[in-house]
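Minutes, structural biology subgroup

Action item carried over from last meeting: produce the structure token record for S-adenosylmethionine:tRNA ribosyltransferase-isomerase (Coprobacter fastidiosus NSB1 = JCM 33896). EB confirmed the sequence was re-checked against the source entry. Recorded below for completeness.
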Amino acid sequence: MKLSQFKFKLTEEQIAKYPAKNRDESRLMVVHRNTGEIEHRIFKDILEYFDDKDVFVFNDTKVFPARLYGNKEKTGAKIEVFLLRELNEENRLWDVLVDPARKIRIGNKLYFGEDDSMVAEVIDNTTSRGRTLRFLFDGTHEEFKEALYKLGETPLPRYINRPAEPDDVDRYQNIFAKNEGAVVAPAAGLHFSRELLKRMEIKGIESGFLTLHSGLGNFREIDVEDLTKHKMDSEQMLVTPELVAFVNKAKDENRQVCAVGTSVMRAIESTVSTDGHMKPYSGWTNKFIFPPYDFTVATSLVSNFHMPLSTMLMMVAAFGGYDLVLDAYDKALKEGYRFGAYGDAMLII
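Output recorded by EB:
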């Protein structure tokens, strides 16, 4: 497949700036892989497509307030710092992106907070992803993290094109999020409300959780036409033996296994053994899935409507079939579906 095959015209107006008033009341497009039929529903109708003992797999990663604004020493120039991951707890080392990058050199000090309460020093600018900062802070690690996160804001994707607001702290986070480490919310999970999860439980639909810390690689532009030459950024993940036993049992009993989001699908496929079953895994994945691809565990996928040329769109097209998914996207554009993390959802079954 070529990169240009995933191009389509998306206007600013079609990208959701804000989430639906209620999590489970976004629109839901249901795409039937076998027949090509497309239905238009409301998200909470999703349970009509599943039965007792079917399994939903969620990503329980938690987004942290990764976007900080500071000033450079001496010049006072405004600098945006995007926290990617903590490298060393004891030395307060963080892997970050800085903008504008050209103004930042090794040895520069950056000041954060109204009273410059947090100071960081640039100690490396040679990493592939950006810079390494050492935060200068006296106190425990817990106190440091608390102070750092108070300065940060919710890392909304750039395409949402507005400053983060107080409501985003809750809404750009899944209600079941618990393992901190993501800078990108697994958007398919944003549609699940407490009421919907309760209704799932009452119907006998079972839930399992894995962790994949979604990173900015999801939004990195692909700069090669030949997709086989694209390298994904690695993301940290954990698939427990308990989840593996649970999902493999459902598969062996011919139950539906629904991957809630492309991050879940990526994690599942990163752990599949030669016999088509999942195995436990703790580590990193840089798996890149695009058509054609043979999926062996999940029977259905929930996903939002993604940006043109994105790796998430490519994975959805691999699962649903390129022609069917691109046709569904064309219909979504004509029918006024909302795109992006705060937008509407698609169920492929």
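Discussion: The helical segments are 141-151, 168-171, 194-203, 241-252, 262-270, 311-320, 322-335.
Next step: EB to file the record with the rest of the batch.
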